[in-house]
């Protein structure tokens, strides 16, 4: 079995943008294309010569956000899985389990004068621990001997 991989993407997490239709053609937003190319470049730099997984995989994404609110977690996950399609794994149909979590900054911070609401210029903290906004992607191949845990068994008509 091959080893799992983890990729850290610094900066604000970016969600997959909806394609716009111009003159009958779908056009992916530039911000989405740029974010996908950054993920692809970082993966190739971190894992040179990587052969895409051919087995079923588990994808886990962590999104450490700069601010609360949008974007939705599913759009954040979609950008990551689309960017790594064909690079980390052959096709996204191999993804058996996918999880994503957004970590949002604390609403209030403690200063020398007491507690106050967090402002946009304040550093990001999660339960008081400072962090920089980033995305963390874990890709884990599923061991073939555990197939029975993920596939329902079919009963034959004879039994």
Gross geometry: globular
CATH architecture: 2-Layer Sandwich
**CATH class, anyone?**
Alpha Beta
Q: At the fourth CATH level, what is the homologous superfamily?
A: Holliday junction resolvase RusA
Helix proportion of residues, in percent? 10-25%
Provide the β-strand percentage band.
25-35%
Strand order of the largest sheet: 1-10-4-5
Mean pLDDT: 89
Rg on CA atoms, Å: 20 Å
Order of helices and strands: EEEHEHEEEEEEH
Alpha-carbon distance between the termini?
A: 35 Å
CATH topology: 60s Ribosomal Protein L30, Chain: A
Helical segment tally? 3
Number of strands: 10
| Largest β-sheet summary | 4 strands, mixed
* Poorly predicted segments: none
Number of folding domains?
1
InterPro entries: Endonuclease_RusA-like, RusA-like_sf
GO molecular function: magnesium ion binding
Pfam family, one: RusA
Structure description:
This protein is of the alpha+beta class and 159 residues long. It has a single domain (5-150), classed as 2-Layer Sandwich (60s Ribosomal Protein L30, Chain: A), CATH 3.30.1330. It contains three helices and ten strands; from the N terminus they run E-E-E-H-E-H-E-E-E-E-E-E-H. It has helices spanning 30-46, 73-84, 147-150; strands at residues 5-10, 20-22, 25-27, 57-64, 95-103, 108-111, 114-117, 124-126, 129-131, 134-141. The chain has a four-stranded mixed beta sheet with strand order 1-10-4-5, covered by helices on one side. Strands 2-3 form a two-stranded antiparallel ribbon. The chain has a two-stranded antiparallel ribbon with strand order 6-7. The model has no long low-confidence stretch (mean pLDDT 89).
